[in-house]
Amino acid sequence: MQIAVRVILTLFVGVSAVILGWSTLNYYFFSPWTRDARVTADVITIASDVSGYVTEVRVRNNQLVKKGDILFVIDQDRYRLALADADATLAARLAQKQMLLSQLERREKLKPGAVIAIEDLDNSHRQAESAAAQYDQASASRDVAALNLARTEVRASVNGYVTNLTLAQGSYASQGKAVLALIDSDSYRVDAYFEETKIPNIKLDALADVQLMDGAAMIKGKVESIARGITDQDNKDGPELLASVNPTFTWVRLAQRIPVRIRITNVPAGVLIAAGMTCTVTLKNEI
After folding, report:
1. Cβ(237)–Cβ(243) below 8 Å
2. Residue 147: is its pLDDT beyond 70?
């Protein structure tokens, strides 16, 4: 009787160990979860489209702004004068155009060859066309001047958070030079790096639980896409663009990690997410 009990207990322990070992092996090597994940977001660099001294800074560091909000203002005096000059030039071109068109209309009513030379009539046509072209050119220049004046108010191109603000009133902003960064608040997502052995179990639109390292409440998401390629660290092109094959091969091969993008669908109230945060991602089989 005791021998039978011992055998049964031994078998039970053995089977339990096998089941537990297989479950552990399956969980760590094949189930779709990873601790190697980061919160990411699009970073928009903000630069002025015109140059000048900064007269106003209307935001503060880490402030949430809406698309279209004014971030800072460039000195407008020069651009107002440029617009006034363009308006005056446009008015002059319009007067010249109207004068030459009226002159052309009067000459076209005269009988060619008798009262007015055909060459003079032809010249009138060319002068009227030239005046019309000069007017169009002045109109375009005026539009550019108005656009430059409007661009002295630098606005947010997306909803987001002002980051690393070092711009101050009185600074000189050069055209095209970035002066602050804006993190797009509508672009937060998670880039998770899964071992290649787990990729077969990952499906598009699969539900995902995202646990931030700070221990905040669980964030929900869905699998948006799976990367189709990563860099081959062992084999790179040589200087002659020939394959540079690594002559050594290690028997212990670590599974490569494939990026999987997770779209965030729900962030619990009070949970703060920031680009660069570390998190753990666990995928569910149901979609």
Report:
1. yes
2. yes
Same domain, 243 and 196: yes
pLDDT (0 to 100) of residue 233: 72
Query: Do both 125 and 211 map to the same domain?
Result: no
Nearest to 283 by CA among 55, 34, 69, 11: 34
- With respect to residue 2, please indicate whether it lies within any of the assigned structural domains: no
- Is residue 5 in some structural domain? no
Token pair recorded at residue 232: 């081959």
From residue 119, alpha-carbon distances to 99, 112, 223 in Å are 19, 9, 76
pTM over cut 0.90: no
- On whether the CB atoms of residues 130 and 93 are closer than 8 A, the answer is no
Query: DSSP 3-state assignment of 211?
Result: strand
CATH number at residue 98: 1.10.287.470
d(CA 38, CA 58): 32
Counted residue by residue, the chain has a size of 287
User: Is 164 within the bounds of a domain?
Assistant: no
Contact between 156 and 58 (Cβ < 8 Å):
no
